[in-house]
Amino acid sequence: MKYTSMYFSPTGTSEKIIKTIVNEIFEEGINFDLTLPKSREKQILIDPESVVIIGVPVYSGRIPVIIETYLKSLNVNNQDVILIALYGNRAYEDALLEMKDIFKEKNCNVIGAGAFIGQHSITGNVASNRPDENDIALAKAFGIKVKDNIGKNISVEVGGKRPYRERKSPNSIGPSTNDNCNQCKLCAENCPVGAISIDDCKIVDATMCINCFRCVKECTREAKYFDERLDNIIKFLETNCTAQRLEPEIFV
Ligand SMILES: Cc1cc2nc3c(=O)[nH]c(=O)nc-3n(C[C@H](O)[C@H](O)[C@H](O)COP(=O)(O)O)c2cc1C
Q1: Which residue, 133, 120, 64, is CA-closest to 87?
Q2: pTM for the full predicted model
Q3: Which CATH number fits domain 2-164+244-251: 3.40.50.360, 3.30.70.120, 3.40.30.10, 3.20.20.220?
Q4: What is the 3-state secondary structure (H, E, C) of 160-204?
Q5: CATH code assigned to 176-226
Q6: What is the pLDDT of residues 142-165, one digit of tens each?
Q7: Does residue 214 have its Cβ closer than 6 Å to ligand 1?
Q8: What pLDDT, in 10s, does the model give residues 203-233?
Q9: Is the shortest distance between the CB of 9 and ligand 1 below 6 Å?
Q10: Cα 120 to middle of ligand 1, angstroms
Q11: For 61-86, what is each residue's pLDDT tens digit?
């Protein structure tokens, strides 16, 4: 059985879990990294005989808007699909359910789904260094279980409720840049929404920024940062989402 994997993963945790699961189940297939704008410009060709596996982060209890639009436009019909949401130890809320609904519309069977935990992109003090060894072991165990559902016309129930959590309006806060910046362009080339000017990395279109923190993490000179306008959310997360270690939830 072949696979088609897809992930949107600005800080790499969704990619890590997807690759772990894929390696556990399949030997042959193709990976589409949907993180950069260029990769989402044209329709990808999905092998109709393959099992489709998708991994995305949870943003405010939902899947990122750009990924919602992209998944809706996918040319798939009547295929087995595996859905993975990565979240930062707060809650995954309706992310799996909205993905499931998108694929139900395309007559696909969601043969398995999982909500896994990854280090919170906004603050490394929440779910630090996750997914860790334990998460990886659970992802492998999920792979073994879900393999049994392939081709069996099974569709699993997932967590979440309708109507989905209302989307927050964009905050129009973009990253700032300090004098460490040497215009290497790494941040601009790696921005998932093309919000950073390639001609001058200090120029950011804050209305496009999705606060994914990829630029902050990729910068080798610690030149990109978010200013105090995100302090309240960071404080909330560090106060409320560190006491309890949440564990992956799987649906098979
Ligand atoms: C804008 C934004 C919103 C987020 N919202 C949530 C959330 O609602 N619940 C949660 O637990 N984690 C939330 N996170 C954390 C991410 O889901 C988590 O860090 C995830 O592992 C990132 O995936 P990636 O490494 O593939 O980019 C949010 C992160 C960002 C940047």
Answers
A1: 120
A2: 0.98
A3: 3.40.50.360
A4: CCCCCCCCCCCCCCCCEECCCCCCCCHHHHHCCCCCECCCCCCCE
A5: 3.30.70.20
A6: 999 999 999 999 999 999 999 999
A7: no
A8: 999 999 999 999 999 999 999 999 999 999 9
A9: yes
A10: 6
A11: 999 999 999 999 999 999 999 999 99
